[in-house]
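Why do we care about 3D structure at all? Because function follows from shape, and shape follows, mostly, from sequence. That is the central idea of this module. The next example makes it concrete: a single protein chain, its amino acid sequence, and then its structure expressed as tokens.
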Amino acid sequence: QIYTGALIFARLASMVMTMPGVGDTTVPVRIRMSFAFVLTIMLLPVLAPVLPSVPDTVSGMAGYVIKEVLLGLMIGTIMRFFLAALSVAGEIISIQTTLSFAQTAAPGIAPGSTTVGTFLGLLGLVLIMTTDLHHLFIGAIVKSYSIFPFSRPIPVADSVQLAIQTVSGAFRLGLQLSAPVAVFALVFNIGIGMIGRVMPQFQIYFVATPLLVIFGLSILALSLGVIGMVWVDGYRSLLLNFGG
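And the structure:
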């Protein structure tokens, strides 16, 4: 029973420690480990019959544990990769609105994120909890034992390809989410450049910078609902691919 519980806990703990929301560094480690332990107790009667027999050697047992840890890290990390879409959108919006110098600590995102990127990242976490996507996390955890059974080796090539597709899709989605502000900034800068050529003595940046910030943030506020809906739909599709 200790071997069975430890083998299940190895994968669950790795996924819980890396998945968005629960796996953020702002959540105490004891709470994350306790959550993984409770899930292990719940899944123990279901998964115990399909577990491999206890290996005869310590090295064989360690190999099973390492394999489960790697699988859990792979699934949890790919789930977290998709959050980069909001971070990319926030970075692009910050650059276009001259707010890239405003840095804020962002839980669950890369350190030194821009304020807009931090806001969108926190918005993503709120949407995950309010739309019950965290329930799909638990479904993906349970379904992972059907997709990646204990007897199957780690699909390294498929995992790398899925990670690359997730990162590229997140970057593409981030660019699409920031498109309203990016298009406005492009048109605005072209107009400002033309005015600067016509009136060289006019202090163009003194007037243009506040307008760019105000109108850029206004467009972001107007498109915030669409940004959230599009991102949630994309994240739901990713979780459904995992069997959530």
